[in-house]
Every structure is written in structure tokens, then in C-alpha cells.
Amino acid sequence: MILIVDDNDNVREMQVAVLESANYSVRDAADGIKAIALAEEVCPELVLMDITMPGMTGYQVLEILRERHGDALPIILVSALPESEERDIAISRGATDYISKPFDIPSVLSCVKQYLQVRPAV
Fold first, then answer.
1. Is the Cβ–Cβ distance between 74 and 116 less than 8 Å?
2. Pairing of strands 46-50, 75-79
3. Which residues of the chain have a pLDDT value below 70?
4. Least buried of 16, 33, 100, 117, by fewest C-beta within 10 Å?
5. pTM of the prediction?
6. What is the pLDDT at residue 118?
7. How would you list the strands of the sheet with 26-29, edge to edge?
8. 10's torsion region: left (phi>0), alpha (psi -120 to 50) or beta?
9. Using one digit for the tens of pLDDT, what is the confidence trace for 90-109?
10. Is 31 exposed, middle or buried, given 0-12, 13-18 or 19+ CB atoms closer than 10 A?
11. How many Å apart are CA 32 and CA 29, to the nearest integer?
12. SS3 of 99, please?
């Protein structure tokens, strides 16, 4: 199951639709607090999360998810912030990868597929 976290309803719904059409099981949350609770409930195989959200930022949620789920959980941060700067920050703070907005659908699907294939069995 993939957990999508984004405060923008349109972006989140588009990501859900794209991943479901590719036969992935998807759950979504509109903010960090809901994402943390949902991750505890369903134990996702991958998280696709916006960085800039009201309340808790994606970085704050990333830190909590890393504490609770460890490094084996792929967490891909997504943002419209400048990629050249933000990618390095995201990786250094514990993200598995970084995708820039606006993103193209094939790139998102490729990234998701890549990290779901390399995840070790639990």
C-alpha cells in the first residue's frame, strides 16, 4: 500500500488516480498528523509526501516516520521548491528520493516501481 500525503486536494487526488490506475493500493492524507496516524494503522510500503504543508511540514513527518518505521520504508518527498537545492536537503534529512513538481506521470510511476521492487521482505 502506498501512502500519499499532500495538502493540495487536486494534486493528491491526481496521484491517487494515477497509482490506482496502475493497480497500486493507495491511501491518502491531507496533512502530517493524519499521515502519521494512517501510517501506524496500515503500515505503508511506500510514502509519497509533499514537503510544504500547513501544520507539520513533510520534513517533520519524515522524521517521525523514520523513528517509527526505520530506513526500510521508502519515503519520497515531492515539492515545487527548486530541485537543485531541495533534493540534497531532502536526502540529507532522511528521504529516500525527491520528485519535483510539476511532475510527469511516467516518472512518478517509475520511481514508485523502483522503490517497491528494492524493498526488503519483512
1. yes
2. parallel
3. 118-122
4. 117
5. 0.91
6. 55
7. 26-29, 2-5, 46-50, 75-79, 97-100
8. alpha
9. 999 999 999 988 888 888 99
10. middle
11. 8
12. strand
